[in-house]
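Appendix B, record 7
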Amino acid sequence: MEVQLVEEIESRAALAQRDLSVVKSHIAAKQRDVRLLQLTSSELSQLPKDTNVYEGVGKMFILSPTAVVEKRLVSEATELNSDISNLGKKLHYLETTHKNSREHIDQILRSGGRN
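Structure tokens (predicted):
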């Protein structure tokens, strides 16, 4: 009975550890995207206001006013920051789950399987 419990807790801990690494990589990717958007926005802010710019759409480029592109960049940055916030909450949950699983395993091992 105790062995099954330890194995189940261990599998949950391993799953939480794997999910932790996935969430951390997602956060890093989204933070990279935010930095790229900030860089693009700063480059656009240096252009005159009436300048038209080209945006990549698939394999082609379309001519867009700077204001439209800046609005899209702000919208995307807001969405990415929201995603990062949600992933941060998920990261906290997974860290807590992993920590609790490890503590339960240690507690079972320290008690020697006695309850």
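Remarks on this record: The chain has a mean pLDDT of 90. The longest helix spans residues 66-111.
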